[in-house]
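Q: Got a minute? One more chain.
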Amino acid sequence: MTIALGGITALLGLAMIALTIARGGGASAVGILVGVAFTVLGCARVYLAAAPRAPRRP
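A: Always. Here it is, folded:
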């Protein structure tokens, strides 16, 4: 579930970037900045959720 939610968040960020560019937003537009943040955080969530973990010590 965590990996799926992270992927959806990253795709939402990419969609925000695409829509902002399509509507004529510049490099510092709010849609670009928030879209980049969503994309980075979504990818980080997927990366951290899928990373192998060290075994626990008893």
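A: The chain has one domain: 2-50.
Q: Perfect, thanks.
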